[in-house]
Design brief:
Elements lengths: L14 H10 L9 H18 L9 H29 L5
Amino acid sequence: MSKNLTDPNRRPQYGIPATKLGERCEFLSMGRRRPAVIGAQLGLSLALLALTFVERPTEQVGLLMLIGMFINNFAATRDVAVDGMSTDLTAVRM
């Protein structure tokens, strides 16, 4: 992966902030990663629900793009949190 910021093939790194957020979310009765998964799923559900309240989508493309950005960020955060939880729970066999 290129570190050049002007490279057109550069992909955004959603995993870095999401990983830091998922590692800090700890609730003793749930474990280390589960609160981050639940929070990301709740945010994703609310962002998808927000799509239903857009009255004239052809006139509010900017709002749709903003909601789509939130959907993408919550889905990426959930994906990183689930991956972290699965690596914590999966036993290592050698």
